Amino acid sequence: MRKNIFKEIEKNVMRENMDEKTRQKLLGNLLRIKNQRINLMITGATGVGKSSTINALFGKEVAKVGTSADPETTEIDKYELDNLVIWDTPGLGDGKEADNKHSKRIIDKLYEKDENDNLLIDLVLVILDGSSRDLGTSYELINNVIISNLGGNKENRILVAINQADVAMKGKYWNTEENRPEKKLQEFLENKLISVKRRIKEATGIDTEPIYYSAGEKEEGYIQQKTYNLSKLLYYILQRTPEEKRLVYAQNMNKEEIMWKDNDDLQDYRAEVLEKFVESVTKGMAIGGTIGQAIGSL
């Protein structure tokens, strides 16, 4: 059974030796975070691995709760995990008529507001297929559907991620033993990131920081392909999430350590992720150890 991270942190704060003013401030911060809600939209062309990405990030306990609004007018799947809501959009690229319908559904969701009259969607994760040379559908989605209708603070509300990095060159130059790209594939992927960033900038004027990763593959509970750069993906998601909401992800992230193990090592993403979670509660107070222990133990 999944532990309640908020209760674990509260217990640690209560038994830690600290002055009462600091304790009450931490508990107040924690209470506010418990009432926060994150709405994450995951979108992309058909076959890019949206479902695999959701399962890799959040594990088997992702629960489908139905479709949003009227099933005849929208087919955006809604997955609800405590205060984390994932909107999984239909894949584009299955014909002009279907794409027009799907695009309208996505746009309608982007304009939807919450009970406080703020835009409902906190972040849009756009997934691209690393093995595809034709990204026309993806650019159409990013430039003309997402960015054009994203509202304010666009650069912090979109993340572009290239999945299936391991098969970007048809499986060549992937070191299976070490589960990472060899130099030739790494250069290919880096050039792809530069190209994607440039094309989005030219079309929209918006700067993005695309990353590449592999969501891995499971069959009947057995890992067929390991994940790669999943910690980096989560780190970039947290960077684009308001500080007061970040801890919501900690409650729902995949608890299988192997899923987070292999990354490009440009940064210690796992440590950075933990730090982002801690900052969500401490807000600059020098008392992060007790929070980190509670999160790290789960």
TrEMBL record:
Q: Which domain of life is it from?
A: Bacteria
Coiled coil: which residue ranges? Answer: none
Q: Which InterPro entries match?
A: GTP-bd (IPR006073), P-loop_NTPase (IPR027417)
- Which Gene Ontology CC terms are recorded? cytoplasm
Q: Where are the transmembrane segments?
A: none
Q: Which GO terms describe its biological process?
A: tRNA methylation; tRNA wobble uridine modification
Q: Which residues form the G domain?
A: 40-162
Return any one Pfam family short name: MMR_HSR1
Q: Which GO terms describe its molecular function?
A: GTP binding
Matching PANTHER family, A to Z? TRNA MODIFICATION GTPASE GTPBP3, TRNA MODIFICATION GTPASE GTPBP3, MITOCHONDRIAL
- Its name, as the record gives it, is GTPase family protein
